[in-house]
Amino acid sequence: MAMTLRLTYEETEALRSRARLEGRSMQEVARTALRDYIERTSRLELIDRVLDEELPRYAEALRRLGM
Predict the structure, then answer these.
(1) How far apart are CA 44 and CA 63, in angstroms?
(2) Band of the pLDDT at 54, cuts 50, 70, 90?
(3) In-domain check, residue 42
(4) Does the structure show a pLDDT above 70 at 63?
(5) What is the pLDDT of residue 27?
(6) Would you say residue 32 lies in a domain?
(7) Please, which residues have CB within 8 angstroms of residue 19's CB and are 6 or more apart in sequence?
(8) Is 26 exposed, middle or buried (0-12, 13-18, 19+ CB in 10 A)?
(9) Mind listing the pLDDT tens digit for each residue in 2-49?
């Protein structure tokens, strides 16, 4: 699917510079950054959900351990 991404001049130049340094296209660098962001934030959301669900279960034990 095609998409138009509007960047500021500074963002475009930073992306161009990074792509040049890595010997990759600007599109490849941007797509990698997007995938990394989605993976990282998805992982954090999962951790938050697990903690929200599991911490209450062990709250008393954690309190007794002084945590």
Answers:
(1) 25
(2) confident
(3) yes
(4) yes
(5) 96
(6) yes
(7) 25, 26, 28, 29
(8) middle
(9) 889 999 999 999 999 999 999 999 999 999 999 999 998 888 888 888
Is 48 inside a domain boundary? yes
Q: Which residue has the higher pLDDT, 4 or 50?
A: 4
Domain of residue 33: give its range: 22-64
Residue 4: inside a domain = no
CB-based contact 30:5 (threshold 8 Å): yes
| Cα-based angle 17, 3, 9 (whole degrees, multiple of 5) | 35
Number of domains in the chain: 1
* CA distances to 9, 11, 28, 57 from 66, in Å: 52, 47, 48, 16
- How far apart, in Å, are the Cα atoms of 25 and each of 3, 7, 15, 35? 16, 16, 9, 16
